[in-house]
Specification:
Blueprint lengths: L7 E5 L2 H8 L9 H12 L4 E5 L6 H10 L17 H8 L11
Parallel strand pairs: 1-2
GO molecular function, one term: RNA-DNA hybrid ribonuclease activity
Protein name: RNase H type-1 domain-containing protein
Pfam family, one: RVT_3
Amino acid sequence: MEMRIPKLVVESDSRRAVELVQKSQVEKHSQSALIRSIKELLVGLECVVVRHIYREANFCANTLTKARQEQEAGVYCFELPPTMLAQYLLADRCGVKFPRDVLM
């Protein structure tokens, strides 16, 4: 399948998920089949970057994930960003920084 995606940046706030996808060999893991499927999708792309980001940089994805739990299964496409993301998109556009709590 030709996806014609010249560059793809995949960001996750799960450091472990990023490590598993970046490894050359898929280790025994409860999600091995999913990891293998992700790696197979990424192999066909020209330029892929998989990187860890902190939870504070992932507000939109987390908001969509939480909202998704309340909806029927399926694929959802949006012509415009859902209103639930408005505050996060505006904050991002304005360069608002969110503090990160670090436990010591």
